[in-house]
Every structure is written in C-alpha cells, then in structure tokens.
Input
Amino acid sequence: MTESELTVIDAPRGPAAGPGVAARRTPRAAPRSRSGRCFDAAVRAYVDRHPEATVVALGEGLGTGFWRLDNGRLNWLTVQPPESAAVRRMLLPDGSRQHTVARAAADHGWLDAVREPRRGVIVMASGVLMRLPPPAVRALLAACAERFPGGALVFDALSRRATALARRGAALSGGRWPAPVRWGLDRSDLPRVASAHPGIAGVRELALPARPVALVDRVPGVRALTPLVCEVRFAARQAEFDDTARAAADRARGGWPAPR
Output
C-alpha cells in the first residue's frame, strides 16, 4: 500500500455492462499526507496545462490517484513489478484510460507504454528513487528527459543524514525492511541533479502544504530530516535543449550527488 490506500470497494458497474457482470471495484482514498498532497498538486498543475497528458505513477501499489486526479481526458499508467501488478489488476482492473504496466521502475521498458508523449507526460515517483542506487536514478532521469520533452518528473528524497539513519534502522531490523534507502539528496545537491541529461531544463523543490507548527518542528535539525519533494522539468524545444545542454555541462563539473 502507498499513502493513498484502498479502503472501500463498492461502486456497481453501470447498466451498460449488462446482466450477470460482477460489480466494478472503485476505490476510495485514505487521507493524504503532506507529501502526498504535494504530489497531487504538482500533477493537477501539469494536467491543467496539458489536459490530455499521460500520468505515470511509478511503484504506485494500490494507490488511487487516477480516481482522485482524473479530469476525464488524461491517461494513467501505473508501473509495478509483475507480481504486484497482477494484484493491482485483480483489485483495480484496467479501464479505457487507466492501465497497469508490469515492469520495475528501473526497467525502462515501461517508457514504451506511453503512446502519445507529445500530449504531455508527468511521472510520479513517490518513494521510488530513494530506493534505487545512484546510477539507476541518473539513468532513469536521463531516459525520461530523452523520451518526454516538455514533460516533468516529481520525486521525493531523504536528505543524506536521514538516509544514513534509515540505513542504520534497516540494519538493526535484521533485514525485515525489504527495500532499503540507497540514495540521499540534500537541498544543496538540486542544481547538480540536472546534470543527469542535457534535456533537463530545471530542478526545483516543491513547497509542502502548510500545517500548524508542531513541537517537533522546533527541534533543531528536524527540517533536515523532512523528505524533499522535487520537480524535474524536461526541455521542450531544440533551442531550450541546446541552452540546457550548455548549463548541464557546467553543472556536471560539480559531479553527481554520491551516496553517503
């Protein structure tokens, strides 16, 4: 399950389905976290500009983003490893504009499932990139920049300090955490992320929705442990591509953020 969990399945199929057809399962989402709402806002903003875009949800599990964010025109791809893809298809069957692709996020074969990238593509990678080794993160960003001009990718990441703590916790768990955190990112690393490919036009941190100040927020260093939610924007035109290529070459001299 992800932040958006399947909680209710109760909507019947319409009369057009004909007699004897089992009820269609339609989910209701659980309350979203602050980072989850940040992802939703980024997708809504992109789809407002590209109403027929394809939204790719990497590692979505049983997430219900399609039902939450559908504008009646977008296409939705959920990318899951084959075993969990089979479970999702069973509980949340594919529809005319909503499909599950049985691929791991690091297996770039899922990019071929995006049929009309010219209409716009936004990729959501909630909790995904941080669990890939740094070379796989870089390769994924480069592949998306190459294939989805004018598109975007939204991801979350833990700081290097939080990543080290997560690894320590995984070690103490005796291997009970199946997907360890492998890649950390500090705010100071954001400019260098764009060096993954000359087609990356920019990388920015997205602001989390406001919340009342809690006591824990006043503890020194807590902000450094809060996950970043970032948006990577891909260049749309050749002139912009050339400009970002030169800028990326300059940024590349600083090196790719390495794990610690």
In short: The beta strands are 6-9, 27-29, 54-58, 75-80, 98-102, 121-125, 152-157, 200-205, 228-234.
